[in-house]
């Protein structure tokens, strides 16, 4: 039996990057269907459906999750992957840039989880994996907004790990906290900065998306059936 056989999976931000790699991996490992919640669109494939939605909009999220339940009858796994950055030192961070990052990274994670959990509770089981960051664990210069949201994701996860199991439900909530990953977002950074990031890492390289996806898949699967409220750091030993 494959890891995600007969599972219906929802992933935010799965049009590209880490989210798309997670989607492809879960489909390879037997997922019945993967739904992507994203403002962007990417290449569709068998058993992969994109739902174009702004996850910071509470009503739109609820509508889309209801559509998925009608179509797929269940949601077994939720991966809150979507994230954005608007970097700057605090004195140069505008209110608009603060709000944009908080709305997607923190409020979006809250919105989607709030919409999905009632359906998981109906069947008494499910798995939620939230994507944080090494920046959420240790902070980083010029990323006050991003660090705050990714630290907040960890705090929400610890809370949900207790809330979603308190009546005997088997709904686990965990975190993967990546370091710097070789995605389109990082590839747009000047080469000299990328080299500096590599040099700071004990392993002297960036992570590949599949290395993050493997960690997400483990926590989402039944192989991690007694892992709850855990932060899995996948950063090559980096502490910023």
TrEMBL record:
Gene3D superfamilies: NAD(P)-binding Rossmann-like Domain (3.40.50.720). Residues 7-163 form the Ketoreductase domain. Keywords: Oxidoreductase. The keyword Oxidoreductase applies. InterPro entries: KR_dom, NAD(P)-bd_dom_sf, Sc_DH/Rdtase_CS, SDR_fam. Pfam families: adh_short_C2. Belongs to the short-chain dehydrogenases/reductases (SDR) family. PANTHER family: 3-OXOACYL-[ACYL-CARRIER-PROTEIN] REDUCTASE (PTHR42760:SF133), SHORT-CHAIN DEHYDROGENASES/REDUCTASES FAMILY MEMBER (PTHR42760). NCBIfam families: PRK12826.1-2. This is 3-oxoacyl-ACP reductase FabG. It comes from Candidatus Vagococcus giribetii. The gene is fabG.
């Amino acid at each position: 039996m494959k890891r995600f056989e007969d599972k219906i999976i929802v992933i935010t931000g799965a049009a590209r990057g880490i989210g798309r790699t997670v989607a492809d991996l879960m489909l390879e490992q037997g997922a019945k269907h993967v739904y992507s919640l994203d403002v962007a669109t990417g290449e569709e494939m068998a058993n992969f459906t994109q739902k174009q939605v702004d996850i910071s909009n509470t009503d739109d999220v609820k509508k889309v999750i209801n559509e998925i339940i009608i179509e797929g009858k269940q949601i077994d796994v939720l991966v809150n992957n979507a994230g954005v950055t608007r970097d700057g030192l605090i004195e140069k961070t505008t209110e608009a840039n603060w709000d944009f990052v908080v709305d997607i990274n923190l409020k979006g994670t809250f919105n989607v989880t709030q919409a999905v959990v009632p359906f998981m509770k109906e069947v008494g089981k499910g798995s939620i994996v939230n994507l944080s960051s090494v920046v959420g664990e240790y902070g980083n210069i010029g990323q006050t907004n991003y660090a705050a949201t990714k630290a907040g994701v960890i705090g929400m996860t610890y809370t949900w790990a207790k809330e979603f199991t308190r009546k005997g439900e088997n709904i686990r909530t965990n975190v993967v906290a990546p370091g710097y990953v070789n995605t389109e977002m990082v590839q747009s950074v000047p080469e000299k900065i990328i080299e500096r990031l590599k040099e700071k890492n004990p392993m002297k390289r960036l992570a590949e998306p599949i290395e993050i996806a493997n960690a997400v898949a483990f926590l989402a699967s039944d192989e991690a059936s007694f892992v709850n409220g855990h932060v899995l750091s996948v950063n090559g030993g980096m502490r910023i």
